[in-house]
Amino acid sequence: MTAGDGVRVVRLLSRRLPWLDILGIIAIVVAATAVVIKNLPSAETSQLLNVSYDPTRELYAAIDKAFIPQYRDRTGITLDIKESHGGSGRQLRSVLDGSQKAGVVSLATIGDVQALSRRGLVAADWQHRLPNNSVPYTSTIAFVVRRGNPKGIHDWPDLVKADVSVVTPDPRSSGNGQLSVLAAWGSVTTRGGSRAQATSYLKALLQHVTVSAAGARGAADSFALARLGDVQLTWENEALREVAANKDELELIYPPVSILAEPAVAWVDANVTDAKKAACAKAYLDFLFSDAAQEQVARYGYRPVKPQILAAHADRLPPLTLFPIGAIAKDWSDAREQFFGTNGILESLSAPAGT
Would the pLDDT of 41 be above 70? Predict the structure, then answer.
């Protein structure tokens, strides 16, 4: 029985029954209508956890706000999207060990997601399931310096001047930290330097690091708020955010050459075995490649992969000379092993003398 049916019954009986009897009938109708309303199917809700790297908080807050109502209108499903942010290496380990049951990951490098794939958590063909090899935006490593650039820092060799102290995240826990190492190495080898020269430069640079935070946002706080160090090596989007928030104190410096950073995304097959949940995860990541999301990407200082949208923001995201990972390693997996694996370049340079 619906509420309308109840009203019609009351009108019919009111012509034939005494008023007191009608009150009893009304009570029955109201009760029946309440049962009908209570048993109506409610909107479906699904929860999705996005495990992401450190500085993407603002970007994904905006992405979620745009995507959730659109998806609800299209499917009737209300998504409850949870976000987790931290150093990309630490986030990767938390998904690998199961302490975070990610539905999707949006990590700092292709190599991070490849590590999940090698463990069977993400399908082997994950790069072919989304546009642009599952890279929805790119970035690079830039410099942030004090206002007026008192130490005259313009290029990578300037970082190892005698009086310069460097702030950068720890490459053992941070994608930003790893990319800074790779960018520093490539700044030598892609401009004609030898492997020995790159090794010597990277060793010197590591000796100039005075603050090594767990993640990009911690490094930013040390540099901008605690005012530690002369230069910060950071994601371009973080540099833009920091300088905008501290216009009278900080400046952004683009070195002549840096690395092409390729943050990658995937749904975690092992954690989204239910077909509806998998569909939610795929739709969420597909949305990142839409024009609406690509505009948000640019707004928050990341480089859209859609050329026309990137070009529209060239005043804030200027063309740069960026070398791909293939310029210094076979691929991201090779770079991870060569630079950050056991007995890799970083470990050998960080080891105490004589070990």
Answer: no
Cα-trace Rg, the chain = 27
Per-residue pLDDT, averaged over 316-340, amounts to 95
How many Cβ atoms are within 10 Å of 18's Cβ, its own excluded? 8
**Residue entry with tokens 């979620």:** 64
As separate numbers, helices (DSSP H) first and strands (DSSP E) second, the chain gives: 15, 13
Nearest to 107 by CA among 128, 124, 84, 130: 84
β strands within the chain, DSSP E: 44-53, 77-86, 104-107, 137-138, 141-146, 166-167, 209-211, 231-235, 250-253, 258-259, 264-267, 303-304, 322-323
Block residue for tokens 């840096």 = 258
Q: Residues 266-323: pLDDT tens digits? A: 999 999 999 999 999 999 999 999 999 999 999 999 999 999 999 999 999 999 999 9
What number of residues does the chain have?
355
- DSSP code of residue 79: E
How is residue 13 written in tokens?
């009986």
Q: Are 315 and 96 in contact (CB under 8 A)?
A: no
Q: Are 40 and 7 in contact (CB under 8 A)?
A: no
Closest residue by Cα to residue 136 from 287, 332, 299, 305: 305
* pLDDT for residue 43: 59
- Report the DSSP pairing between strands 209-211 and 166-167: parallel
Residues 81 and 50 sit within 8 Å (Cβ to Cβ): yes
At 2 the three-state DSSP class reads coil
- Measured CA to CA, the distance from residue 262 to residue 162 in angstroms comes to 32
Instruction: State the pTM of this model.
Output: 0.85
Q: What is the mean pLDDT of the chain?
A: 89
Q: Is the dihedral of CA 135, 66, 320, 188 positive or negative?
A: negative
Residues 238, 242, 247, 252, CA torsion sign: negative
- The pair phi, psi for residue 107, each rounded to 5°, is -105, 170
Query: Sign of torsion, CA 89 91 92 97?
Result: positive
pLDDT at position 14 over 90: no
pLDDT at residue 352, as a whole number: 58
- Three-state secondary-structure class, residue 235: strand
CA 65 to chain centroid, in Å, comes to: 15
